[in-house]
């Protein structure tokens, strides 16, 4: 296997499947099976999941909700998704721990770096909920920060498209996929990979990012093996 410790970033929207909101059971099950294949290979796995299928903090202001309040609501949405994912993973026989950026002791542990690393070393899948616990930061930023803190080898950003393109492939049929690209090129070309805070964190800490299609079965394992799937940014 190419990687020993992976941080997987999943979007909340991806959990919707074909639904308008909420969690699609079949999509969740597919993710669990893909994660299990990687876990069974002995790879240490941490996961950050978004909350956009339930609530997005950045959209709160348009409905008259204070931005900070909205961001905290978004954090709670990520905890709901994290709990659903934890339950599904444990239903498949995997050992997990859910750690939260805000204190919700009844359902998850507070995030402590040393404890998170110890869980990974003991072969537990660690799910990070509630972002970093502060407003104005996205779950992309959470993924970058947590990956650096637990010394992951790579951030895998699971999306609906199979990598980074010259333009939006859903809008421009002539768009082509980059096999690999440097952090600097992404800046210069203005490509939308992650928010700038998250992206800069990875660049400054030499942490590679792979953007790939999480909805295609087997992709996660192929990446763990070192296959050319998605787009590598380094």
Automatic annotation (TrEMBL):
Alphabetized UniProt keyword annotations: ATP-binding, Cytoplasm, Kinase, Nucleotide-binding, Pyrimidine biosynthesis, Transferase
Binding-site residues for UMP, renumbered to this chain: 51, 71, 132-139
Catalytic activity: UMP + ATP = UDP + ADP
Pfam families membership: AA_kinase
UniProt-annotated location(s): Cytoplasm
Binding, ATP: 9-12, 52, 56, 159, 165, 168
Pathway: Pyrimidine metabolism; CTP biosynthesis via de novo pathway; UDP from UMP (UMPK route): step 1/1
Gene Ontology annotations of biological process type: 'de novo' CTP biosynthetic process; UDP biosynthetic process
GO MF annotations, alphabetized: ATP binding; UMP kinase activity
Keyword Translocase set for record: no
The EC number(s) this enzyme carries: 2.7.4.22
A GO cellular component entry from the record: cytoplasm
Keyword Ligase: no
Regulation: Inhibited by UTP.
Main EC class the enzyme belongs to: transferase
Ranges of residues in domain Aspartate/glutamate/uridylate kinase: 4-213
Family: Belongs to the UMP kinase family.
Subunit structure: Homohexamer.
Biological function: Catalyzes the reversible phosphorylation of UMP to UDP.
Protein name as it appears in the record: Uridylate kinase
Organism annotation: Reichenbachiella agariperforans
């Amino acid at each position: 296997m190419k990687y020993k410790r992976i941080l997987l970033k999943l979007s909340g929207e991806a959990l919707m499947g074909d639904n308008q909101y909420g969690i699609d059971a079949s999509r969740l099950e597919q993710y669990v099976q893909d994660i299990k294949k990687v876990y069974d290979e002995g790879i240490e796995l941490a996961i950050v999941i978004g909350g956009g299928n339930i609530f997005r903090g950045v959209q709160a202001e348009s409905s008259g909700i204070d931005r900070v309040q909205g961001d905290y609501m978004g954090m709670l949405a990520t905890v709901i998704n994290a709990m659903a994912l934890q339950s599904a993973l444990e239903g498949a026989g995997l050992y997990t721990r859910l750690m939260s950026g805000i204190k919700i002791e009844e359902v998850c542990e507070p995030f402590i770096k040393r404890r998170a690393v110890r869980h990974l070393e003991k072969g537990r899948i660690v799910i990070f909920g509630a972002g970093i616990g502060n407003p104005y930061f996205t779950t992309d930023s959470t993924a970058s920060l947590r990956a650096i803190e637990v010394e992951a080898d790579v951030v895998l950003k699971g999306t609906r498209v199979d990598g980074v393109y010259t333009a939006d492939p859903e809008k421009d049929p002539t768009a082509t996929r980059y096999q690999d690209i440097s952090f600097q090129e992404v800046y210069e070309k203005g490509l939308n990979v992650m928010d700038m805070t998250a992206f800069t964190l990875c660049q400054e800490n030499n942490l590679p990012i792979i953007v790939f299609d999480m909805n295609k079965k087997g992709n996660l394992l192929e990446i763990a093996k070192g296959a050319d799937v998605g787009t590598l940014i380094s």
